[in-house]
Structure formats: C-alpha cells, structure tokens
Design a protein that fits this description.
Elements lengths: L8 E2 L3 E2 L3 H8 L5 H12 L1 H7 L5 H7 L4 H17 L1 H11 L2 H19 L4 H29 L2 H15 L1 H16 L3 H21 L15 H4 L8 H26 L8 H38 L1 H23 L2 H17 L1 H11 L4 H26 L5 H14 L1 H10 L5
Antiparallel strand pairs: 1-2
Amino acid sequence: MAEVPLDTKDENDGFLATPQEADRYHKWKDYRSRTLAISSCCTLLTPLAGTMYMPSLDEIISTLDTTEEMLALTISIFMIISALMPMFWGPFIDRFGRKKTMIFNLTLIIGSFILAGMSQTILWLILARSLQAVAASAIGTIGGAIIADTYPPKIRGDALGIYAMILLLGTVIGPILGGYIAVWLNWRWIFYLVAGISALDLLVVILFLRETLDDSLQKRSMNPLNSLKLFLIPGIGWSCLLIGSIFGAVITMLFTMSLDLSRDPYNYSENTIGLMMMPYGVGLVIGNWVGGKFADLGYKHRGGGGRLVSAILTALFAAFSYAGYGFSITTGSVVGIIICTILAGFCSTGGRPGLVAFCIERGGTSAGAVVGCVMTAQFSSGFVYITLAPLILDHISTFVMFLSCSMIILVTIPPILVVTSMFWGKD
C-alpha cells in the first residue's frame, strides 16, 4: 500500500485518502467505542424478535388456532418488509441523519412488540410483525451506517465483526430465553420482554448517542430507486448475492429446526429446543469475531480483494455444513446436529464482515444506502426461502432441501473469486 502524507496518517486510523477524510474519522476516535456499543445493543432487538419465539411455534399455532403455513407468514412478511424498507431508510438517513431516525423507530418497535404480545388472531400477529419489520430494518441500517461514519477503512472490518458478533448474540440467548419464558409464563411475554429492552435502548440513545452524519458531505437523493444503482457497482451486487444465499439457508434452518425438534422422533420441549439452537448461535458469534479480524488483515496486505478471502473460504465450508445438518436432522443424529450447527454458524458469518466492509468502501459516501442494499439482499433471500420451505417440504426430504441450499451457496462463489482478483492489491 502506497505511503501517504503525514497529515493523512494516524496510528490507529490507518491510511486515509485526504486530510479532510483523516479529520472526519479522527474526531470520532475517542467516541467510537460508545457508538459501537449503542448501535450494537439497538440492533440486537432484531434477532431477539426473530428467534425468541422460535421454540414456541407449535404453541402459537395452537393458541391462535392457525396453521403452519399461516405462522410462516409472520416470518416471511417480516422478511419481505425488511427487504424493501432499507431501500428507503438508506437514502433517508444519508440525507436527514442517524439519531432522530433511530429514536422514531425505537418508539415504533416498542409499540409493535406490545401489539404482538396482545395478539388474539394470526392476522393480528402478522400486523404486529410487519410493524416490527419496518422499525427493525431502519435500526439495522442505521447501526451499519454509524460504524461507517466513525471507523476508517483499516479498522472497519474489525468493528463490523464486533458489531455483528454482539448483534448475533440474539441468536444465542434468544431461543434459550424464549424457551424458558414460554415454559414459565407463555409466548406472549416474549414480546413484552423485548418491548422493555427496547425502552431501555431508547433512553440510552436519547441521552448518549450523538449524530454521526457529516454535514459537509453532499446530500443524497431520497429516491429509493437510486439505491438500486449501487448493485451495479463492481463487486457490490455479487457480494450481496452471496450474503443473501447464506442468510436464506440460516433462516430456513432456524424455522425448520424448531418444528422438527418438537415432533417425532425428538419431541423436545420449548426450553430444550432453545438449548439445541445455542450451538448455532455460538458459531455465529465466533465466526463474526474471527471474520472481522481476518477481513482487516486481508485489507492490510492485499487491499479490497484481500477482504473477500475469508468470505470465499467460509462460504465453501458453509455449503458443506448445511448439507451435513440436513442429513443429521433426517437421520436423527443429535451429535451430528450439534456439530453441523456450530460449523454452519461459524462459516455463515465468518465472511460477512469482509463482504459488508468491501461494499461500504465501494459505495463511497453513501454508507447508509449501501448498508440498506445489503439488508435488502439479505431479507429478500430470507423471504423467498421461508415462503418456499413449507411448500417444498411437502414434496422432498429435509436433507434434499438443505443440499439444494448448499448448492446455491456454491454457485455464488465463482463470481466472488472474479471480484477478488479485480480488487487484489487495490484500495
């Protein structure tokens, strides 16, 4: 990497393009840890909302007198709204700022969790989940944008890894906490608890979060369709496709695992199902932490292309781990399920920090819009997978379905190899 003038070099911030850019990042040097902690805690609400009620799916079907297909809509509609809204929220926060938008959506998500807990019909629950998706998509987009605002490229991958690691703690504690709450109280209290956590986050944001959007940057267009052009920037579209293919397999596994383990030959209780999901969450957390370190190491030695090495390696192993999970759940191998879920969790997220950091760097100053594109790709894939999964399982085995998920992941790897070679050694 070429040497730059001294006034654009900082021992922690790394190498920056201009004195103006150096000043923009350096002023956040003593505040970064706080912004990272606040952003992570707020975004933690999304996985908590999505995973805490997973162990109670059968109980919800019984309580609301509904079907498995209708209950799947509470997840698939959450996914499609989460896919569409970041295309609006990304340009919105790039134009109007992070903090006020965060306050509004935390208030909205508190009300939506309370509404979900009060649900008397499946349509009521679907409405509540839809509002949760609107708010959660904004909160997730804002969190990634705040990190892009405050962390320079050289240490951004590590920050994104820590951010995602804390975020994915929800997938570890969510099913466990939700399972025990369902046993001690009932599934409604799952949503009430998350509403209380959201209220604490709102108070912290109001008191301690500062606006991080740089007012000196050019204001972006509010037209959501303009964000679609970011997918055409070399590398962003293919990176988002890989993220989406892996997330689709993730959400499919979480949904089918809860139902499979509650029935023959397992017949597990809600709290046991929650514990069985824990190995996957542990793998996710470790994968993100290691992936963030590896992404920054790759950037240091091989530039933008180096960020993607971890994504290629972990995607390969993720494909094999999901196929292994499908085989284990079909044959009744509990040990196989645990081993494959840990490996799947690690590999599913090990490459994500590098992919997201790469996309942010390719998108220039449109950090919010780029994070919105990543979330759109992720949740669009989740919507397709979770909508089709119950229908597909009527015709093929669980093993064949997860083998298909693995093949889709493998197909997305060759384009990433091409992108890696294009940006190898380049900033």
